[in-house]
Specification:
single chain; globular; Immunoglobulin-like; alpha+beta
Length: about 110
């Protein structure tokens, strides 16, 4: 119950970790726990590129970014996604990590992030 109260104090009524302002900027519905900005990474040993996919909301722009570590390094833009008049699934690919050195971490952000 304490977790729930702390989340409400941050205006996180769906208890998914996102405050209402973050929900608004991302274009997600703060009343729907299934409505979230989430990046899906598809990897196959036989496929060359990594496929990165997310649900984009009408009227919003996004950037897919990567980083070689999570320790305060600068994120690098992989792809920009312009706004559209309808909600849609966006897919982009990253050819670089296949057979390359080290790990890559990915995120999708809206311009306010």
């Amino acid at each position: 119950m304490v977790v729930k109260e702390r989340s409400r104090q941050r205006n996180d009524w769906q208890l998914n970790g996102d405050a209402r302002l973050q929900e608004y900027v991302a274009g997600t519905d703060p009343r729907d726990p299934a409505s979230r900005l989430e990046l899906e990474v598809e990897y196959s040993v036989s496929a060359a590129p990594l496929k990165l996919r997310f649900n984009a909301v009408a009227g919003k722009t996004y950037s897919v970014q990567f980083n070689s570590g999570l320790g305060g390094s600068t994120w690098t833009r992989l792809a920009d996604v312009g706004f559209a008049s309808t909600n849609r699934v966006v897919e982009t690919v990253d050819y670089s990590p296949v057979g390359g050195p080290g790990a890559r971490f990915y995120r999708v952000v809206t311009p306010g992030d």
